[in-house]
Design brief:
The protein is an alpha/beta fold. Helices cover 34% and strands 17% of the residues. The chain is built from 17 helices and 24 strands. The longest helix has 16 residues. It is globular, with a radius of gyration of 23 Å.
């Protein structure tokens, strides 16, 4: 059991809840009830509160740290978290709970044999140095101390020379770096904040506390989509009970010096990083796109750590920030399919994540790809894989990096068919068309306007996009074309943060072209989902109907 170790010390006792499949806490767990809401996960419907949660790791959104923090502050967290693989997102939430709010939650990483044993137990106790069950004691080493080589500037920040807020940030940053096995910190040129989404009250509690301490970012830092249209939410009928704290959360980060970009696609901004640039981004789809397509370097930093990195300008030198960790560890051959439309790419991303849930894959046999297609690929991949990047042969800049011991997998035409069926649980009558998860690009908006072909939508049709994209659409006339067709184009929020009544209450079945929202939508919205190409979405918007038949390129 030499590899088993506490990441965060503590004691706990509870019934074991185990799964072989990683889970995204954001979009997968309701923090108000602690129930698993991911309709595609084996634990769907289970309650996590008070259980010893045993799973290989987590996947999906960086916002899971905020969900875990909210659960911890409200007594709804698991009694303990037991992982087999390195895990950052909910571990960071547990660190924040302990360091800033005095709520202890043990986190352990077990080597495979111990993990398998614990997975099959009914009830365990976590005690100092061990996990106990009737007739059994499994030794667990203490948490590793920091082996970081800190610079004089790092030590000054850590000691409080720049104030309590920076010292707090550096303490947790150092602890996370130790968890990741880093030996030193590196400078980053920019940050991107994901924790500005009002996923739970804990996000505001954290941001308000940091703002009150005088926290300020020291590198250019963009902000993710927020949970309301910041200027218009009252006119849209959003209740004060939700709109006010959501705006306060956004305002807190702006007050800390963050740019009010309010987009989950920062790679569409003029500030997008260059190949080889070290950055400190959060937001799963943005991280995967930055690493994979742009060739920049960033870990999939959890919410809250993104602020600490922006405040210090420093990040752990670990994971895919290191050359040796960017190589593909699994080569996936993709079946040749002729005549495929844009639906191919999010379906491929979702399938690639399932085929490579814990390692970087290389996708072979898919040919050329546009930026929009790669955006859809990366976003869907992030819902089913914990890996912070992927490669596409002949397309992405580091696709030549393949580990000598990389294994092999295949995605067949049958896999595409089954994925389409799994993600299309809704009926043929469509009540809402949802475009922009992640935020729509200029090209996606133009293509949707073209597909409407001068018609007027018959059901609510909403595109979410970043402010800069909307400004460009307005300048070129595309925004006017969309609005004349009855399409609503919303800034600031996105489908993964939208709430009623902006999300139309009468919706029973919605249609989207987003693999990310097709995955998370059932749990987040409580509605049935239809998932298809942009052109099929446009046709559904014009008629309120979409035949439930396989795309022609799969039939």
């Amino acid at each position: 059991m030499m590899g088993s170790r506490f990441i965060l010390e503590g004691t706990a006792k509870g019934r074991v809840l185990a799964s072989d499949e990683p889970l995204s806490f954001w979009g997968g767990v309701d923090p108000a009830t602690s129930k698993v809401i991911d309709a595609h996960h084996p634990l769907h419907g289970e309650t996590l509160a008070g259980r010893v949660l045993v799973m290989p790791g987590t996947r999906g959104s960086c916002t899971g740290s905020g969900v875990l923090l909210d659960m911890a502050l409200n007594g709804l967290a698991p009694a303990a978290l037991v992982f087999r693989e390195p895990e950052d997102v909910v571990t960071l939430g547990a660190m924040i709970a302990a360091e800033m709010f005095g709520v202890a939650l043990p986190v352990l990483r077990l080597e495979r044999a111990a993990f398998d044993i614990v997975s099959h137990l009914e009830e365990v106790a976590v005690i100092p140095g061990a996990i106990e069950a009737p007739g059994m004691t499994l030794p667990v080493a203490s948490a590793a101390g920091s082996a970081l080589a800190l610079t004089a500037a790092d030590l000054a920040m850590l000691s409080g020379a720049e104030g309590e807020a920076v010292s707090q940030a550096m303490r947790i940053l150092v602890a996370m770096a130790a968890n990741q096995g880093a030996t030193r910190l590196i400078d980053v040129t920019q940050g991107h904040i994901d924790g500005c989404i009002y996923a739970s009250p804990a996000n505001l509690t954290f941001a308000a506390k940091m703002a009150d301490l005088g926290a300020r970012v020291r590198v250019p830092t963009t902000m993710n989509a927020i949970s309301v249209d910041r200027e218009n939410w009252r006119a849209q009928g959003v209740p004060d009970l939700f709109g006010t704290p959501a705006q306060r959360l956004a305002d807190a980060y702006v007050a800390m010096g963050c740019r009010p970009s309010f987009t989950c696609a920062p790679y569409l901004l003029e500030s997008a990083p260059a190949e080889g640039e070290a950055i400190g981004w959060s937001e799963s789809n943005a991280v995967i796109f930055a690493n994979s397509v742009l060739g920049a370097r960033t870990a999939k930093h959890p919410d809250f750590l993104d602020l600490f990195i922006a405040m210090t300008g420093r990040a752990p030198l670990a994971g895919v920030c290191l050359d040796e960790n960017r190589a593909a560890q699994r080569v996936i051959d993709v079946a040749a399919i002729s005549g495929a439309d844009d639906l191919f790419w999010p379906l491929l991303g979702w399938l690639a994540g399932r085929a490579s849930p814990d390692r970087i894959p290389l996708l072979r046999g898919v040919g050329a790809a546009s930026r929009e297609q790669l955006q859809a690929l990366c976003a869907a991949f992030g819902t089913t894989s914990a890996a912070p990047m992927l490669h596409v042969e002949g397309v992405t800049p580091e696709a030549h990096l393949v580990a000598p011991d990389a294994d092999a997998a295949r995605i067949s035409r049958t896999d595409f068919t089954r994925a389409w069926e799994e993600l299309n649980q809704g009926g043929e009558e469509i009540d809402l068309v949802a475009i922009g998860s992640p935020h729509a690009s200029r090209e996606e908006c133009r293509a949707f306007a073209s597909a409407l072909n001068g018609g007027r939508v018959q059901v609510p049709t909403i595109i979410t996009a970043g402010r800069s994209i909307i400004a460009d659409l307005q300048g070129e006339g595309t925004l006017a074309t969309l609005e004349a067709a009855g399409v609503q184009v919303l800034p600031d929020l996105c489908w993964c943060s939208i709430s009623e009544p902006v999300f139309p209450l009468a919706t029973r079945t919605l249609m989207t072209n987003s693999g990310k929202y097709a995955h998370y939508g059932p749990g987040l919205s409580g509605r049935q989902i239809r998932f298809d190409s942009l052109r099929t979405c446009a046709a559904a918007a014009l008629t309120g109907h979409a035949a439930k038949t396989l795309p022609s390129w799969l039939s």
